[in-house]
Write a structure and sequence with these properties.
Helix content of chain A: 25-40%
CATH topology of chain A: TIM Barrel
Strand content of chain C: 35-45%
CATH architecture of chain A: Alpha-Beta Barrel
Helix content of chain C: 10-25%
Radius of gyration of chain A: 18 Å
Shape of chain A: globular
Structural class of chain A: alpha/beta
Number of domains of chain A: 1
Strand order of the largest sheet of chain C: 4-3-7-1-2-6-5
Mean pLDDT of chain C: 96
Mean pLDDT of chain A: 97
Low-confidence stretches of chain C: none
Number of helices of chain A: 8
Oligomer: heterotetramer
CATH class of chain A: Alpha Beta
Bound molecules: flavin-adenine dinucleotide, flavin mononucleotide, FE2/S2 (inorganic) cluster
CATH superfamily of chain A: Aldolase class I
Largest interface: A-B, 42 and 42 residues
Largest sheet of chain A: 8 strands, parallel, barrel
Distance between the termini of chain A: 26 Å
Radius of gyration of chain C: 17 Å
Strand content of chain A: 15-25%
Chain lengths: 302, 302, 255, 255
Amino acid sequence: MNKLHCDLGKLILKNPVTVASGTFGSGKEFKDFYDLSQLGGIMVKGTTLLPRRGNQPQRLVETAGGVINSIGLANGGVDDFLNNILPEAKDYGTAIIVNISGDTTDDYGRMAEKLSVPGVAALEVNISCPNVKHGGIAFGTVPDMAREVATMVKNNTDLPVIMKLSPNVTNIAEMGAAVESGGADIISMINTLIGMAIDIKNRKPIIKHIMGGYSGPPIKPVALRMVYQVYKTVKIPIIGMGGIMNTEDAIEFIMAGASAVSVGTANFVDPYTPLNIIQGLNKYVEENGLSSYKEIIGAVHR
Amino acid sequence: MNKLHCDLGKLILKNPVTVASGTFGSGKEFKDFYDLSQLGGIMVKGTTLLPRRGNQPQRLVETAGGVINSIGLANGGVDDFLNNILPEAKDYGTAIIVNISGDTTDDYGRMAEKLSVPGVAALEVNISCPNVKHGGIAFGTVPDMAREVATMVKNNTDLPVIMKLSPNVTNIAEMGAAVESGGADIISMINTLIGMAIDIKNRKPIIKHIMGGYSGPPIKPVALRMVYQVYKTVKIPIIGMGGIMNTEDAIEFIMAGASAVSVGTANFVDPYTPLNIIQGLNKYVEENGLSSYKEIIGAVHR
Amino acid sequence: MIYKEIGKVLENKALIKDSIYLITIDLQNIAKEALPGQFVEIKTGDLPLLRKPISIFDVDKNNGLVSLLYQVRGKGTKNLSGFKSGEYIDIIGPLGNGFTIDKKEQEILLVGGGIGIAPLYYLGKELKSKGNSLKFILGYSCKDESYAVDFFRQVAEVEISTMDGSLGCKGHVGRIVEKLDISKVTAIYACGPEPMLKYLKKFEQEVDLELSLEAYMGCGLGACISCVCEKTDGSYARVCKDGPVFKGKEISFNE
Amino acid sequence: MIYKEIGKVLENKALIKDSIYLITIDLQNIAKEALPGQFVEIKTGDLPLLRKPISIFDVDKNNGLVSLLYQVRGKGTKNLSGFKSGEYIDIIGPLGNGFTIDKKEQEILLVGGGIGIAPLYYLGKELKSKGNSLKFILGYSCKDESYAVDFFRQVAEVEISTMDGSLGCKGHVGRIVEKLDISKVTAIYACGPEPMLKYLKKFEQEVDLELSLEAYMGCGLGACISCVCEKTDGSYARVCKDGPVFKGKEISFNE
Ligand SMILES: Cc1cc2nc3c(=O)[nH]c(=O)nc-3n(C[C@H](O)[C@H](O)[C@H](O)COP(=O)(O)OP(=O)(O)OC[C@H]3O[C@@H](n4cnc5c(N)ncnc54)[C@H](O)[C@@H]3O)c2cc1C
Ligand SMILES: Cc1cc2nc3c(=O)[nH]c(=O)nc-3n(C[C@H](O)[C@H](O)[C@H](O)COP(=O)(O)OP(=O)(O)OC[C@H]3O[C@@H](n4cnc5c(N)ncnc54)[C@H](O)[C@@H]3O)c2cc1C
Ligand SMILES: Cc1cc2nc3c(=O)[nH]c(=O)nc-3n(C[C@H](O)[C@H](O)[C@H](O)COP(=O)(O)O)c2cc1C
Ligand SMILES: Cc1cc2nc3c(=O)[nH]c(=O)nc-3n(C[C@H](O)[C@H](O)[C@H](O)COP(=O)(O)O)c2cc1C
Ligand code: FES
Ligand code: FES
């Protein structure tokens, strides 16, 4: 029996190790390194209804042991994804999960509809982006807006819907509850913290867009805490992420309440990180005599 | 002329480098290293109306290049401070700023009154603690509660009032505006992010109190971003902190909008950090031909 | 007086490869003031961020040298083991209170478990110089993981226990203590794992019992109040400043 | 094919102390496929977290060796300079597109500014082996900070400019180019600071102009879309995957 068999309700993965949106392209860029079918799933890079050029560079910088990025959702749009990316990706032999972002609630609905095609395993809904109809406040910071997006996506697809929470909120448990009540099947968390770095020589923000999303090892303690809090509040499964670099990190997230994990920034550091973690989890399960890794999901709550 | 002369409105410091509450005791513990009169000011460790034993240990752990702590405001209470700590501290020759925490808005008022004595240069109001009358929600996460505390403290003292913002909020600018409208003279920011670390061997949180405050270098990008946002919103001066380890870090905060800085976790790593930064700022001001460090306050906004 | 010194490493040698090391550092000021049972806080590299507390194993006051006996556990102590002779290391100390050493012509047991033996050597030398009669009782996990015994033998009689019986008495150090005629003993000084210290608490009425504790430390200076242990009266004491040595009676091991 | 290899360092020597280094690493797979103008991504230590992009300076296909010429700027390149012969280093490559090398019997200028000269050596060797006639134009800040000139001299004629005139022509490399009879030149390949590349853009109509760009990189693999440069048509291209080499006409230096 596969002791890493991962059951997220409507979404079944061969193992609980996925790769995080925006850090793995569509998978193609990592194909030289290993057979992608070994992965639990790929969260494809953020897709929007229409193509986007993205933000002006400099878009990324390393700081404080982590990374700040402001890519601005550069992508070819949903039609490009369907026509040019999915046909190849659907044969990778792993769950292709499409990460979608919208300017309005309607955008999300239209994308959900368009993406409900064979080859797409699930939708991951990025709500860290601004709602242009509400003065640019991020969907993911207002429970009602997040709930509405969840419902809108659910109403336009039969695919499992993963709502991806933003950590830049006062009450993450409330956000988890909101998307659950909106119909989300799964929660993924966390997206990046908002951060900034300054070039003191030029007296300017290093990132052209001023602020960006902060990811990597430094955000792990915040991510773990939030997974812990949301696990206490919701019944739906959680995909945990934020600074996962190795097996120990992944186990921390699972013990905090995650049923699966996602590897992000670590892919830049070592593309083999997801494989190492799959191997490490297998070893951990054996060494601890577990019948399935599921035995440790939420272990710190017991 | 002293090019580091620091004018925070009602509060004047000899230089803009202070030490952060909870990381420097009352100063006594650092007296062996150097003459404390060199410091811009000392934010004394968190004081409450009544003595507190604090949380059960383990209270602190290093993780992800930072530190998580949950001391639980262990302290002897405000009377102990007045009787046993202040008499010595007021002769250190630096501004003694008392950091106060309350269970209720009234607590803050009573402490402000009691602490309005000679030798206290200002009050720093920690609002990251729970409001016991509001289901334990932290004062610093609800604008109205934070504003009320500011007003309550202002009404009970003539000392400069520094409101210390919690970063665990959706909208930090709104919190800044709230305390400003409540009468705050100065804002200090940021307090710790809420974080967690897990001992996977024992399947337990490492910190006995489960979650704790995350500080040190990893939180700097978040702190800088928040100082930047609050500077845009308020007119009162800001004391910036969060992971400041050296002169460059301090300059980043000043350029983001801080008129002074506070050194926290770095005191554990090298007790001389505040002095090194004072020296470094003096050098920076000279090398860049500035008439005062003030010329670079908020420089990235220009 | 507490000093921050950048000391030159004279020697850093493995007593057990990749595990137990003895480092000797030129630390003029710290050496001058160090008392048995005190410790230092070491910056071992960029990361870990925090300094690491290590007990003072020996002091050479004439030459201003401090020796530390340490076990490699994680990144900090691993870094420490990488320092080479001639390199410089950033150290704060001496810290904490230390054991009571104004005893004369008494019969004293010095009990150490594992790396907890570290502070007992300097302590033993000081107590012996005051005419006390000493016995070291040292506990290790097994013969292959025993170390530094010869140092202690030079000072006084040594009895050893190992968990697997491969050296000395089988079991923890209590196996040795319980066989001794404790009636002549006036003091027991101990450092080691908590179960060992807990066991020794049963002698707190009969002898002067002093226990050196460990706790996770932030500042090491008494400022952050993170390193607390619970006292018998229910209050908390700072291990770094009020300790690390406490009277047996003072400490409750409830938490 | 892109490889992740743990290669043995054969030599890592300073050409200018604490500043310019030449490292040679045993990288069998990368050496097999590396093309002139491609680069590698190096894990230099625990921190910096990200790998560092460095151009391929030379390749020894017979022995599976890759050489890199680099300048110490911050922590990553400082770490790199600390690797000793016999140590192992974690490298991903070869990455990016590389210069166009299917040229024959043409007259080609290879223009490099500062550390931007790095990719031109291997490029020059390849182009020369195809019967092209080459000239290197290398710009440095001053004589004392010039390096690796002898390498280039072995391949073809070298002209040098320095900002202070202490070696060769005074000023940036443009000073040399503008004096040449450009009418016979069919291609200019260049790598260096942006102002230099911008200057060379004025030849984009007359010759095949290829420019190797730099950008801050996250993945180096084309996945994160962070390393973009603006193209003439207003779209963005990824320097790591679509570049680092672009046709002069393709690139706008507006941003
Ligand atoms: C007063 C005192 C004296 C000590 N004397 C010695 C000695 O003489 N020789 C010796 O080998 N060890 C001694 N220790 C233990 C030593 O401090 C730890 O082994 C060391 O900190 C481990 O750090 P690490 O980075 O190698 O391992 P990590 O993997 O970081 O930690 C391993 C374990 O060491 C302990 N530890 C880690 N960091 C700290 C910290 N900042 N403060 C306290 N404990 C910590 C924790 O229990 C942790 O689980 C002493 C500890 C204290 C408190
Ligand atoms: C395609 C390419 C090829 C290069 N080839 C060479 C070469 O052959 N020899 C050489 O000496 N240098 C080369 N560089 C530059 C080299 O990558 C930087 O000098 C190095 O990354 C600096 O890192 P650091 O940690 O030492 O310094 P830092 O202090 O981190 O950075 C100094 C500067 O280097 C640049 N830099 C830092 N990190 C990155 C990154 N992740 N990606 C891109 N740029 C970064 C930035 O401009 C930064 O301001 C190349 C860069 C690119 C993009
Ligand atoms: C360069 C980069 C691009 C990202 N793009 C997206 C995106 O398009 N959509 C999204 O939901 N999250 C995006 N993220 C966030 C990651 O998916 C992940 O939530 C976050 O980085 C935390 O995980 P990590 O610390 O392991 O990287 C991006 C992260 C990075 C570093
Ligand atoms: C051990 C510890 C104790 C702290 N205690 C207090 C406190 O009592 N009151 C308070 O307002 N902030 C307290 N803080 C927060 C610091 O004052 C500071 O805001 C925070 O640590 C961020 O700065 P740093 O990253 O430089 O440490 C404490 C921080 C630490 C690490
Ligand atoms: S470690 Fe800070 S008080 Fe003991
Ligand atoms: S660095 Fe990631 S796409 Fe170029």
